[in-house]
Predict the structure.
Amino acid sequence: MVIAAGGPPPRLTEILRTWFSIGLQSFGGGSITLYLIHQACITRGWLSEAEFAKTWALVQISPGINLLKLSGVIGFRLRGWPGLLAALAGLLLPSALITVLMTAGFAAIRDLPAVKAAMRGVVPATIGLSLSLASQMAQSPLTRARREGRFSVVAHLSLLAGAALLFAAWRASPVLVLALTGISGVLWLGDAPAGLRWRRQEARR
Amino acid sequence: MTPVNPLLYFWLFLKGSLFSTGGLGNLPFLHQDLLALGWARETDFVSAIAVGQLSPGPTGLWTISLGYLTFGWPGAGLALVAITLPTLLAIVVVALHRRVETHPAVQNFTRGITLGVIGLTLGVAWTLFQGTVTDWRGVAIMVGALGLALSKRVPVVAVLALAALAGWLLYGMPA
């Protein structure tokens, strides 16, 4: 069993109750959920600020929904596998049920003319929101690239644009796109001198 | 719509979660696969994403909404299991990552994939744009939503509500 930092491990019912209330309260998307999980862990002394930040970073490099993985990893840390189950069940049971009920209600009304007109407005808005998400996600890697110099900026932008083109214009599978960008990342990104060295070796061949 | 094969259906949802990170990361996979098989319509995706933004919990729960729209309660259940399973992988990754995190190749691979994920997001936006935005009204709403989202002062729920209102006013009124 994994013991939390300081103090005895919490009871399973407490883990379940905590995530249940997070699942019920977090209307309005992931940032609210993250805020509530952070607050719960800090005020109960389950994780320090630094531990929380590291855990949040680590769960983001593995596949899946970040907030589910964060809940699972923290539950596991607190009480092992039962803790993981308690955290996930607490988070998912209320929110998944409400999601299905909202979908059912929406499916019943989506063919009404007024609703159709409203949805014609929502679709372009979801595109705008995706663009904003992309620009927010791009900020941190591009800032780092700018620090590394012009070569790195060009490499980053080409990878990004290449992935978008492969998917949108040639209908490439997303797995293939990510595999290619990952491999290109190893060859091109990182410290620019190493990338240049590699290119010079390639050119000599 | 074409009848659903539950095993393949589950695998497509699981594949989407296993090969993506973040709430809408599985969208490109499901969009491509389910549309190709005739198991979903474009409107199912739009509705599911909207519900996912409005309902409590992570945005990724839009997948459950898509499951319900395309395959009823069984679809919602299969989607729920498919998005939960990768959590087990996260436990392993957190344990393993410490051994390799300082290796430059691992860091650069991760950076490459991050850029790929952003590129895919743009690719989906472009595909959606071509398929659904047909006139200046759509472009105006898209740019407005982008501006509001980038300002970070307006919650997503409010952006979607405003867009719905704009759609109703621009498209719903008899010309």
DSSP finds eight helices and no strands in chain A.
